[in-house]
Structures are given as structure tokens and as C-alpha cells.
Amino acid sequence: MTDPRIASLERAVHGLRLKTDPADLEHYGRDWTRRWTPAPLAIALPASVAEVQAVVQWANAEGVAVVPSGGRTGLSGGAVAANGELVLSLERMNQVLDFNAVDRTLTVQAGMVLEAVHNAALEQGLIYPVDFAARGSCSIGGNIATNAGGIRVIRYGNTREWIAGLKVVTGAGEVLDLNRALVKNSSGYDFRQLLVGSEGTLGIVVEATLRLTEPPPPANVMLLALPSFEVLMQVFSAFRARLRLEAFEFFTDRALGHVLAHGAQAPFDQVYPFYVVTEYAAGDDAQEAAALAAFEDCMTQGWVLDGVISQSEAQAQQLWRLREGITEAVARYKPYKNDISVRISAMPAFLERTQALLGEAYPDFEVVWFGHIGDGNLHINVLKPDGYGDAEFITACEHVTKLLAQVLSEFEGSISAEHGIGLVKKPYLEGTRSAAEIALMRGVKQVFDPKGLLNPGKLFDA
């Protein structure tokens, strides 16, 4: 029997596309965490801002919770609908709305896939520089909701640096046009920046005006083999001192093993404990000479054991695949993920503490490390062994996450660097934010979403 609320929604928003088949409910009701059983009321697929606003107004009238949905590539349970919520998918709102050559801005609908945004910018001879491995499936709205960072944060920063303006439907059903692409605007609170990273709990981003920039100078990619965890920061410092780094990414031998098993090509004849893939500006002979000097210096110091410099775009892509293919390669193991950050200066001491903690806590589990060393962001993937039940495995991992959260608190770090809090990290928010900050967050939530209907239970409980 059809739920009467679905008929009510169809009457309230004439022509709204809805999906209610069980397969669709399962598909749209979860993200990459796969830990919660999807149970949404229905899937709404609006095609315009007016339809989004009408859906939210209907939800307020009926008291139905709404889960905004983009590419659902998140790893914190931020897009899960497990309690009869209406999933509001923006996938049909995926068009370029405007390009302004003078302002160098691109206005797009929030459902546009990141890779399509990249291509639209390139068509104008410019780039949108935020980038990560899920570019082919994540949406710009989801990137904004989590302030996504990615592989080139060293050079370009996080998503928020590139948001010139936002159009948002609040939890009360109001449409806000925030900042309007102004470069300078000191006329009160900047709600645009408040919405960035809010995980769909304050409003639904429906349009975004993105800042674009010139393409970077020619770059080259180098893969380095390292003997130990402890030398990572020395290698980073040596390369940063000589080169304009675009990216500096680290991963372990175990991570490489999974990517090779997934079809990638081995870069060296032997296996080393740790690896770095770095991309740097290389537009002339002087820059290439500087890269070689940095490499040779690190070899002399014993910080680097081997290396390879890409000789073509195809080889550069092969080297990047070794880092970017990790998440896909380990997905079948249902990994428990931690996405953490500390100040760059605190990385050596934090790495030492964390490595010891995880070695003691997970003696029987395989732990796959990788991360953005240049911005203090580490990804820790604990792989579920055969024979372990899902619940048993998660319980074991959550115990260690509590210990990890304590270490992060000591180092004044964050339990979430770029994936958001969602459902997964909600119990550990207090280790990153003070009680006073969380109280203010709740107050902001009340103002933007008076009935608490937008993505309820994410970030914190009502």
C-alpha cells in the first residue's frame, strides 16, 4: 500500500519525479559506508530550485525529515537515510548556468559531477582546481557540504577557498542567495562560508558560483620509495624548500599491494616500506634540476631509497593511480576508515604516537595508511578479516577510535579532515570541538532548520 505522504507530496509538487522501488530506495538511501540499512520513504529528484523549495516546504508541513543527496561518495554516513526520511537527490540538477569571463566564475547546479565541472572550466581555458579520486562520481554540492580537500590542497586549499557564491534552500524552505560572487563583502555575517562544511544540516545547496583560475604551469610527477615512517617530514621539507609543490601524497607498502592486485603496474623491482607521490611545477630546466637536486639530497641522507620521474603524461597517470586507486582497491574488505588531521608541524610526533597505538590495538587486522602529508591529513583504513562479522569488526574498531580521538585531542587535531562527521564520527565530535562551540552549532541549526528536518542525526543529535 502506498504511503499517503507520497500522494501528498505529489499533490504539493506537481510533476516532481519520485522513485519508490525497493532497489532505488536501497541505492539512494546509503553512501559508501555501507553500515546502515537504507529505509527511506521515497526518492525525490527535483529539476529546479523551485521544486527543491516546494519539497522542503512540504516536508515542514508534514513533519518529514529530508536527507540531501549528491554522489553519495561520503565515508562518514552523512547521506544515509535509514529512518523513513525523504531522500532529495540533486542528480537531475547538473547543468552549467553561467560563465563570467571577467570575474572568472562558473555558476553550476549542485548536482553537477566534479569531473564535469573540471571539463566545463577547461573549455574556457581555466581550471577549477579542487580534485580527488572520486571526481567521476562525487557532486559539487556534496563537495561543498563537506568542504572537501583532496590531493592538491598544498597548492590550492580546500573547497571553501573557491566558492564565490551559493544559492541555498534553508530548512525552513527559504531561498538564500549568498555573497553573489563578490570579492569583497564586509556587510555582516558570511552565511556562504557557514554553509560550506555544514553537511546538509542547515540548508540544501542548489547552485554554486565557483572561482576559476589559470591552469598551472607544466608539472611533473615523481614517485619516491622511503625506508621508514619517520623520514616523511624530512623528505617533504627538502622538496618544499626547492620546488613549488602541487601535491605530496604518502602511502604504505600494504596500500601499494592492494592497488597492484587491482591491476596497477609495479613501479620498482622490489617492495619498499613507504612511498610518496609528489607533483611539482616543472616548466623549465632549472625546475627539473631543482627536483633532481632534492631527490639526490634525500638519497644522500638515506631518506629516499629509490625513485622514478614520469617521462610522459601516460606515465604520470600510472604513478598517480598507485595513490588514487587505494580506496577502490580496498573497498571489498569493507574497511573501517578514520580521516584525521593535525597541524603539519605536529605530524612527526603524532605519526609516532599513532603508529604505536594502531600496532598495539590492531595486531590481527591489516591497516592501510595513506594521506596528504603536506596538509596534515591522514587516512587510516582498517580492513575486515575473513570470518569477522560486521558488528564484531565495527565494535573492535570503534574502541580504538576512542583512543585515537584522545590522542587527537592532545595534539589539538580533528577527527574529520575532509569527510565530515555524519553518523560515523558523531560520538567523537567533543574531542574536536568544545562544549561551547557545539552549543552554538545547535543554536545555528535551530535558526536555519527550526523543525530539525534537514539531515537529522548527522553531526550531532537534536
Per-chain topology:
Layout: H1 4-12, E1 17-19, H2 22-28, E2 42-45, H3 49-62, E3 66-69, E4 86-89, E5 96-100, E6 105-109, H4 114-123, H5 140-146, H6 153-156, E7 163-170, E8 175-178, H7 191-195, E9 203-211, E10 219-226, H8 232-242, E11 245-252, H9 253-261, E12 274-281, H10 285-301, E13 306-309, H11 313-324, H12 326-330, E14 336-341, H13 347-361, E15 366-372, E16 377-383, H14 390-410, H15 435-448
Parallel strand pairs: 2-4, 3-4
Antiparallel strand pairs: 1-2, 5-6, 6-9, 7-8, 7-9, 10-12, 10-13, 11-12, 11-15, 14-16, 15-16
Helix pairs in contact: 8-10, 13-14
Characteristics:
FAD-linked oxidase, 20% strand, Oxid_FAD_bind_N, 5-stranded antiparallel β-sheet, 4 domains, Uridine Diphospho-n-acetylenolpyruvylglucosamine Reductase, domain 2, 462 residues, 16 strands, 15 helices, Uridine Diphospho-n-acetylenolpyruvylglucosamine Reductase, domain 3, FAD binding, alpha+beta, oxidoreductase, oxidoreductase activity, Alpha-Beta Plaits, 7-stranded antiparallel β-sheet
